Amino acid sequence: MITTCGILLIDPVRKILVCHPTRHHPNQWDIVKGQIDPEEEMIDAMVREFKEETNINLLTICSEIIDYSEQWNVEFVYEHKKKKLHGFVGIMPMTCDVAHFKCESMVTEFKDLPPFPEVDAFAWIDISDYRLLHKSQQVFLRHVYDNTDYLKNCSWEAKEKDYIYG
Question: Which domains does the chain have, with CATH numbers?
Answer without folding.
Answer: 2-147 (3.90.79.10)
